Amino acid sequence: MNEQFEPLMKHGSIYAKVMANSIQATLLQVAKQELATAEAEQVIGELTAPSLCRDLVEKEHRLAISEELTALREIAMLLLIYIEEQAI
Asked: Per-residue pLDDT for 52 more than 80?
């Protein structure tokens, strides 16, 4: 899973790196069947919510962080699909 997040981990903001680590931990729980996919989707949605970004990030950085969060959410959802398919 790390290679999918590598560009953001190398070049992203500290905020995106923290969210990527949290998302990876969530995906790992799904892969270990410790967390249901629906619950993981909710957690990932909360972690990447633009409203959270608005509350925690300075105004001039919000657009860039928002784009990073969108990328994180898209990667995470693709990985969730992959994990589900592997479990079948």
From this structure: no
Map residue 47 onto helix, strand or coil: helix
Residue 23: Cβ within 10 Å count: 23
CB-neighbour burial class of residue 26 (10 A; exposed 0-12, middle 13-18, buried 19+): buried
- pLDDT, one tens digit per residue, over 56-76 is 667 777 788 888 888 999 999
Tracing tokens 């967390």 back to the chain, one arrives at 35
Mean pLDDT within 22-27:
94
pLDDT score at 53: 66
Can you tell me the distance from the alpha carbon of 26 to that of 23, in angstroms, rounded to the nearest whole number? 5
Phi, psi at residue 36, to the nearest 5°? -70, 155
Q: How far is CA 20 from CA 26, 49, 87, in A?
A: 10, 13, 23
Phi and psi angles of residue 12, each rounded to the nearest 5 degrees, phi first: -80, 175
